[in-house]
From TrEMBL:
PANTHER family found in the cross-reference section: ADENINE DNA GLYCOSYLASE
Molecular function as annotated in GO: 4 iron, 4 sulfur cluster binding; 8-oxo-7,8-dihydroguanine DNA N-glycosylase activity; adenine/guanine mispair binding; metal ion binding; oxidized purine DNA binding; purine-specific mismatch base pair DNA N-glycosylase activity
Enzyme class, UniProt record, top EC level: hydrolase
Ranges of residues in domain HhH-GPD: 35-186
CC cofactor note: Binds 1 [4Fe-4S] cluster.
UniProt xrefs under SUPFAM superfamilies: DNA-glycosylase, Nudix
One family name in Pfam for this protein: NUDIX_4
Family matches, as Gene3D superfamilies: Helix-hairpin-Helix base-excision DNA repair enzymes (C-terminal) (1.10.1670.10), Hypothetical protein, domain 2 (1.10.340.30), Nucleoside Triphosphate Pyrophosphohydrolase (3.90.79.10)
Keyword Secreted attached: no
Protein's name according to its UniProt entry: Adenine DNA glycosylase
Swiss-Prot/TrEMBL catalytic activity: Hydrolyzes free adenine bases from 7,8-dihydro-8-oxoguanine:adenine mismatched double-stranded DNA, leaving an apurinic site
Length: 350
């Protein structure tokens, strides 16, 4: 039996039961695929159900308000995914007469959809013969064939894509794609793969040469950039001062407390001497509320501290992106994880 037939028969007995399987509806496949990018299945599943319940069709999704989408997305991170989905849904209304496309060449034109997602949607919805290439597939193929070309290099992407498409079962591409991804997630796992029970152990070059941990090979990433955010909590008559982020940085258009960003950590005395602080909160009393919180994003580390500001003078609203919101209604605003995690603690503070 060849690679793909072995894989498909393994999948028939062992494949995962997932709520977005057994459908050919491209909208449902798209929803699940985008939600599950950089997200674990256990974390993404409730979001998938919630989105489908709130927006049963692509038309409902297109007609949603962006704030509403971001609010539902809250906690998943990588918010550009939600914004791109919104754009794609609107593109489908205008360019595809409201019907979600299933042809690879059309799907790939949608905002936020790359080669992997286009192959998944086209193969699962219309059995189009495109091999998916995600982290699982790279890992399985690199180990099985002991390929040491870095998977995140241009040459690697080309080489693995050619092999993946050669191995693809052209009669059952959707099933094959699901099978190889499940196999990578369940057996050929990143750490401690279950080689002893693997159907490929006799043919797998990495296993045969006892070199599993050497694959896949990756080029080293650039070091992450550090950013220091000092957040200021200004409360007035049960209202909190909130700022809307701009749309050219992380967490675009989301809400948070007003803040000052610096390239280094500032002591509290250096912070009150900062020009932006003096401009926005002259003669304010400042109190630090927590230690440093770190959030790791792709290519950057965010270090945040939160301060309570009292007695700010009247120019706090000089900034047009700032406004007071009733603290009871903050849960209606789309906020990033640093904010809503802090707010949970803040509610308990005296
Ligand atoms: S033998 Fe081990 S490394 Fe090779 S394909 Fe199977 S699980 Fe992966």
């Amino acid at each position: 039996m060849g690679f793909s037939s072995k894989l498909i028969s393994w999948y028939a007995k062992n494949g995962r039961e997932l709520p977005w399987r057994n459908t050919t509806n491209p909208y449902i496949i798209w929803l699940s695929e985008i939600i599950l990018q950089q997200t674990r299945i256990e974390q993404g599943t409730p979001y998938f159900h919630n989105f489908l319940e709130n927006f049963p069709t692509i038309e409902d999704f297109a007609n949603a308000d962006e704030g509403e989408l971001l609010k539902l997305w809250q906690g998943l991170g990588y918010y550009s995914r939600a914004r791109n989905m919104h754009k794609a849904a609107r593109q489908i209304q205008t360019d595809f007469d409201g019907k979600f496309p299933t042809k690879y060449e059309e799907v790939i034109k949608l905002t936020g959809i790359g080669e992997y997602t286009a192959a998944a949607i086209a193969s699962f919805s219309s059995n189009a013969a495109y091999a998916v290439l995600d982290g699982n597939v790279f890992r399985v193929l690199s180990r099985y064939f002991a390929i040491d070309t870095p998977i995140n290099s241009t040459a690697g992407k080309k080489q693995f894509s050619e092999i993946a498409n050669e191995l693809l079962d052209k009669k059952h591409p959707g099933t094959y794609n699901q099978a190889i991804m499940d196999f990578g997630a369940m057996l050929c796992k990143p750490k401690n793969p279950l080689c002893e029970e693997c159907i490929f152990r006799m043919d797998c070059r990495a296993f045969q040469t006892n070199s599993i941990q050497s694959y896949p090979v990756k080029l080293k990433k650039k070091p992450s950039r550090n950013r220091f955010f000092a957040y200021f909590i200004v409360e007035e008559d049960g209202q909190l001062l909130m700022a809307k982020r701009n749309d050219s940085d992380i967490w675009a258009n989301m809400y948070e407390f007003p803040m000052i960003e610096t390239e280094e950590e500032l002591s509290i005395s250096a912070l009150v001497e900062h020009n932006e602080f003096k401009f926005n909160f002259p003669s304010a009393i400042i109190e630090q509320l927590n230690g440093m919180v770190k959030q790791v994003l792709s290519h950057q580390n965010i270090y945040a501290k939160f301060y309570r500001i009292t007695n700010p003078e009247n120019n706090v609203l000089k900034n047009s992106n700032w406004a007071f919101y009733n603290s009871e209604n903050l849960d209606k605003l789309a906020m990033h994880k640093l904010m809503f995690t802090f707010l949970e603690t803040f509610k308990k503070l005296p």
